Amino acid sequence: MAFDATPARDLPLSDTALDQLFTSARTRNAWSDRPVSEALIRRLYDLTKFGPTAVNNTPARFVFVTSPETKARLIPLMGEGNRAKTLQAPVNVIIGMDLDFPETLPRLFPHAPGAKDWFADAAGRRDSAFRNSSLQGGYFMIAARALGLDVGPMSGFDPEGVKAEFFAGTAVEPNFIVNLGYGTDENLFPRSPRLGFDEAAQIL
Amino acid sequence: MAFDATPARDLPLSDTALDQLFTSARTRNAWSDRPVSEALIRRLYDLTKFGPTAVNNTPARFVFVTSPETKARLIPLMGEGNRAKTLQAPVNVIIGMDLDFPETLPRLFPHAPGAKDWFADAAGRRDSAFRNSSLQGGYFMIAARALGLDVGPMSGFDPEGVKAEFFAGTAVEPNFIVNLGYGTDENLFPRSPRLGFDEAAQIL
To answer: How many CB pairs under 8 A join A and B?
Structure first.
């Protein structure tokens, strides 16, 4: 790209960085025993939190499962095919969505004091929590890769069981679960095909 | 970080790159007239498509609205507060979700020939399309920033109208819409607060 005096944010990241985030990154099914520190978990949250959400509602809630005691509560709720890798990963992250997110809006979206009332309809509130917590899940996984970590997202678990075990008495519902750590190449599938541009997109 | 012979993918990106993706990036409400080329749109798709989805189902579908004729079909379907900026942005991206994604699984997830049948239940199929197309929307926005672009996501539009105008006769439903281009600081809100780690997360 020719020098054109645009600020740095108008420039693409290096191919090495794009590889790390997208092109060469892989969902991991096996994990080294290299630990993930609490400081790194907090740094990961501090990147994730800045991703855009509707009226800044940031409905995602994160339970970082790290101790053997907590893993023992989670593993039986995972689908059978997900248990061994979930046990092996140094961290399992339950990403939930808080259906009570409107209560946070007076603080999170202060320039529209009525924003809380825009979600009075239960179905619309759930849709927004689902969409935006999923977006945040996407930010979370790319942020993890940006910090040099690997991820392994899973939908195969007992959602009612996870709700009862980890979110009882709250308006939080589980969305999906991510294994987090430093992956190995064990049990790595060959990269599956992707849809071509013209199958998934159009320019009109 | 001390040199420890780990491969490059185990290292964090630079603070400058993390700023560009997350920390300093902002949802833009006004746009310069700098165009976005078709080559850049295709490069953006080619990063986005590699983000992880359940059984590689990649249900997101992308309509890149670039021509005045197509913008004229979209603008009246946007919420009033979103019309001026949607008109100004060089590209508007309608991100849809294809409820017929199971039809693609024999090709996209070839090592599990029965995967298509895991989504026979309509509610489960819709949940997976919604969750995974939203994840892909998250990948898309971070990939755009990684390429030096800015984004402005919006949920304020007439979903039935967008369905009828852009996805008639298909199983695709609109999820959300993203303005894409090179933003300006005009109409930029001050950065809104985020939840602290202990409000949104716990380590157990």
So the answer is: 233
